[in-house]
Design brief:
This protein starts with a helix and ends in a 12-residue tail after the last helix. The radius of gyration is 16 Å and the shape is globular. The strands form 3 sheets. The protein has a two-stranded parallel sheet with strand order 1-2. By secondary structure, the chain is an alpha/beta fold. 43% of the residues lie in helices and 11% in strands. The mean pLDDT is 93. The protein has 7 helices and 6 strands; from the N terminus they run αβααβαβαββαβα. β5, α6 and β6 form a beta-alpha-beta unit.
């Protein structure tokens, strides 16, 4: 995916998971070095409704430390797992000065039945300036090999966005 984004001269925002960063810190560093925005997703990919406020706080602390250490970037954006934002998560994000960013379009690329065509159609239907597209670069929390659907769809998604003359790239630092 990083090679494809580089070839297309497109930047993205990667919402990193701390436990994945701990397994592959060099990859997290490569993402940042390539000019992509680095944001925080979580440390362990769990539904926040099942965490106490103390568990959530510890999860965010670990994720932040792992991501910052591996990338040299202090994340400013946060997306909770599954898009489930609890009051405790919103409170923690605000206390830390993080902007919560969800999505407007998802390709459902984590599903076993996903393919390049289905991901492309779901992501590009009704795009407007300011649309936020949700994709996954790994299959740690989805069907085995599901990331291949993302890679298959991405060139056509980029082409569709460019043809519609919409802004293409990661989260702007000033937002």
């Amino acid at each position: 995916m990083l090679e494809l984004l580089a070839r297309e001269q497109v930047t993205a925002t990667f919402f990193l998971v701390g436990e994945q960063v701990a397994r592959s810190p060099a990859l997290a560093g490569e993402i940042a070095a390539a000019g992509h925005a680095v944001a925080l997703h979580c440390d362990r990919h769990r539904n926040l409704l099942r965490l106490t406020p103390a568990m959530l706080r510890a999860d965010l602390d670990r994720a932040h430390e792992r991501i910052a250490d591996a990338t040299g970037v202090t994340p400013r954006f946060y997306r909770p797992p599954y898009g489930v934002l609890t009051a405790a998560a919103l409170t923690q994000a605000r206390r830390r000065g993080w902007r919560v960013l969800l999505w407007t379009h998802w390709g459902r690329d984590w599903e076993a039945r996903a393919n390049g065509d289905s991901v492309h159609v779901l992501l590009t239907a009704g795009l407007t300036a300011g649309s936020v597209l949700l994709l996954h670069d790994a299959d740690d929390y989805g069907a085995p090999g599901c990331w291949r659907s993302t890679v298959a769809a991405l060139p056509r998604v980029i082409e569709t966005v460019r043809a519609a003359e919409l802004i293409l790239g990661g989260v702007e630092p000033g937002l």
